[in-house]
Amino acid sequence: MSAALDSAAQSLSSCLARASVARADLEASLRQEHTDCFRLFHGVAEGRPGLTIDRYGELVLAQTFREPLTRDDIDAIERAVDGPIVWNHRAKTARESFAAFAPYTELALREHVVSEHGVKFPIVARHRGLDPWLFLDLRAGRRVLARHADSKTVLNLFAYTGSAAICALAHGATTAWNVDFARSSVQVAQRSLVLNALDPACLVTVVEDCLPVMRQLAGLPVKGRGAARPFTLVEARQFDVVFLDPPAFSRGPFGAVDVAHDYPSLFKPALLATAEGGLVIATNHVAEVEAEAWRDVLRRCAAKAGRPLQQIDLLQPDADFPAFDGRPPQKIALCRV
Fold first, then answer.
1. How far is the C-alpha of 221 from the C-alpha of 219, rounded, in Å?
2. Domain containing residue 74
3. What's this model's pTM, rounded to 2 decimal places?
4. Does the pLDDT value for residue 226 go beyond 80?
5. Whole-number Å distance between alpha carbons of 318 and 79
6. 13, 35, 39, 94: which has the fewest C-beta neighbours closer than 10 Å?
7. How would DSSP label each residue in 276-301?
8. pLDDT for 68-115, tens place per residue?
């Protein structure tokens, strides 16, 4: 090992050790909540930008978004977690497979079942997509959802693998809708239903672009080029809880999703689809958006839509997602209608 590599490995080992100490109280608290999945290392705030390490039960998943790991880095991580890791290099080119950086192992390809707030979710480290099936920085939002779900109806927009809807049903929701265009994500949600022995009749799955569905639920006209083609028809209705978790940016036939510059186009239909006295749990994970400025956008949008908010609270991710400036990119707004 060269002196430079040796120094880098020692530096990473030190960062991992500090991160472990910083999480001791949180890990104890999560165990009491029957949660065995959390972020072990958040590199951007803990000394190694471009590296994250997550524990999903027995699976430890390292992801790199800039430079690949070295063999010494991998050794340092495996010493810190006391076992083998799966490493997914997210900066790979389109022609490269994950296997170019680390072999496909049994650990990477088999299903792991993890628990969050006592709810079971399937995890496969390497699948057809890039993102993990359970976003851990949304744990704080799902915790609130679990507290409010009993006997409620829930709408999960931009549902991805449906974790919010599964969480709601497991905590007593009568009905939950998942709305997302990705059919492969729907299959993960169906697996979660089985793992938690939930009644399939309680989950409504709409495989469609969210924009036309949420506008119809809100009683608004469907816009964009896609309005001229067939799309899934739904009747206007309201839900007790709406979970709104859009991507930062996307463009489709029904218009663009632009969280940084046009959140009202998403928040207004979500509000109109929320029953009086209900709750909207909205997220924004664009780092450049200031939390207080975003709160003001939500408040003004609600007033303009004729659904002024009774209360709006900002919730930060748990302590396993630290921010070096105290302002984490992931922002969660609890909006009481």
1. 7
2. 3-118
3. 0.95
4. yes
5. 25
6. 94
7. EEEEEEEEE--TTS-HHHHHHHHHHH
8. 999 999 999 999 999 999 999 999 988 888 888 888 889 999 999 999
